[in-house]
Write a structure and sequence with these properties.
Trna Endonuclease, Chain: A, domain 1, four-stranded parallel sheet, 13 helices
Length: 323
């Protein structure tokens, strides 16, 4: 029998080999990455132990890393810049037990993580990178957008510590949507005089970044990739949302669930995004409304990092008697 792609058994063989090859490639990348991390950790250990053994006070002094960079680069070539050696040293200090290193993250992830001084904040971004499979680019963006500080600012001491240890875990429907959503990637020029239509157009053009910022459970699979688990209805308001906007969205949810959903679809999700949020109005407007409807605040600029950090530090300094 002629072996062609029309032969089912032969095609199954091709598919099996292809899948095995791709899985092998992924395992090889993970293995290489794991060896890199362990090697860099061990180099960091050697540097710290040398310093602690008296080398820091000896003839090298503050020039230890500079001298190491020169000598190791002459011997091995690239990879031993002074900044890289500093990160290797930091890696060992921050993760004194090698077995506790999250080996699924790349060295470029760790370079960004080690720039974070606060261990709680660093732990959060580490856990979140693993949970959401962030690329290094996305990790950098979320750091710049102060994601940890924004999430932690609305929590008590126990909540902040839990967030740092576990990352953002979805335990209730409201955990799906971030508050506020920061849309700095839209690059809206000051003084922000754009219509709702113009804002919507910018969001559509930056759809991937918008979904990543929106919250957990939203994913950008790819352009022209058809997969439908549920409809997500978004109403963008230039200012604050009124009770009529909440009611209208609830009506849309009812329509889509009864008229547009097909077999296998989950209930639709409704999101009303507003610039200003009247918490009391939203509370009453949402009374007995579907748990699939969310009202969230958005802002076009990054929040004040120092103010958020001060707020979190006050929460953490509250005595256990008041927790």
């Amino acid at each position: 029998m002629e072996l062609t792609t029309k032969n089912i058994d032969y095609q199954n063989l091709v598919n099996k080999i292809s899948q095995t090859y791709l899985q092998g490639q992924k395992k090889a990348v993970v293995a290489v990455n794991s060896y890199h991390l362990e090697t860099y950790w061990q180099i960091g250990q050697y540097i710290v132990e040398f310093e602690q053994g008296g080398g820091k006070k000896g003839q090298y002094g503050k020039g230890l890393l500079q001298n190491l960079s020169i000598d190791l680069t002459l011997t091995h070539g690239r990879g031993f810049s002074q900044s890289n050696l500093i990160r290797m040293r930091q890696l060992y200090i921050s993760y004194p037990i090698c077995a506790e290193l999250p080996h699924k993250l790349s060295w470029s992830h760790f370079v960004e993580l080690l720039k974070i001084d606060d261990p709680l904040e660093r732990s959060f971004y580490e856990k979140q990178s693993l949970l959401e499979n962030w690329s290094t680019t996305e990790l950098i963006r979320q750091k710049k957008a102060s994601l940890f500080l924004r999430l932690a600012a609305s929590k008590d001491k126990i909540g902040i510590l839990k967030l740092a240890k576990l990352g953002q875990i979805v335990e209730k429907p409201t955990d799906l949507i971030r508050e506020p959503c920061v849309l700095e990637f839209l690059q809206v020029p000051e003084p922000y005089h754009l219509s709702e239509t113009e804002l919507e157009e910018r969001i559509i053009n930056k759809l991937q970044q918008f979904l990543l910022e929106l919250g957990k459970g939203f994913a950008f699979i790819g352009r022209q990739y058809r997969i439908l688990k549920c409809f997500v209805l978004i109403d963008l308001k230039k200012e604050d949302a009124g009770y009529e906007d909440v009611g209208q969205m609830n009506m849309y949810l009812g329509y889509f669930e009864n008229e547009e959903n097909t077999e296998g679809d989950n209930p639709p999700i409704g999101i009303v995004l507003e610039r200003e949020k009247d918490e009391l109005l939203v509370k009453y407007a949402m009374h007995n409304i579907s748990s699939q409807l969310f009202v969230s605040k958005y802002q076009l600029y990054l929040p004040n990092r120092n103010e958020l950090r001060a707020l979190i530090e006050r929460q953490l300094n509250i005595s256990d008697d008041h927790v």
